[in-house]
Amino acid sequence: MLMYMIARTHDMAAITALTFVVVMISPLPPLSLATILLSLLANQLGAIAPDVDQPTAPFWRNVSFGRLFGPAATRLLGGHRFLTHSLVGVALAGWLFGLLLQFLQPIMPNVQVEYVWWAFMIGMISHLIMDSFTKEGVPWLLPLPIKFGFPPLRRLRVTTGKIVESFVIFPVLVILLILLCTMYYGDLVDLFHNKPIS
Ligand SMILES: [Zn+2]
Question: Which of 33, 120, 167, 184 has the CB geometry, 3.0–4.6 Å to 23, for a possible disulfide?
Fold first, then answer.
């Protein structure tokens, strides 16, 4: 049995969540094209980041030597769905990603890094929310060793990697994204019409 949701479910959830937040807080101040593109990338990175604690996760399968370092990283992070699947982990990852962006800022002056940072965080939080719908639950409040899930009754939750995920959750996310893009088309187009920052 798969112990984690399929990566594309998380990718889809992250982009849907990002679009939702963007249309909810729009209009946004002028964003450069570089900011928009990097934000999308950071969002997808955040979407799979929590599963670094899973040695067979897409994250490790897609990097060279992943099979070598995956198991070690898993042990270091406390096993699947531990530190990286908690608010403490999200804060820690946010802090590290912020440092990385600060470090990279001098070589990418056209990027408004604060938006890239938010896109990453939205991706990561959407991952935890999605995992909360699964039987295994998520230890949101570590070091409190309780795994939370929705609905609270475990029996009603989704089994990861099963038909419900591929044929219900994924399509629902796609439909939500399409609805958001249709209903708020003007707001989204405005993002691209903004003059780049100088
Ligand atoms: Zn996960």
Answer: 184
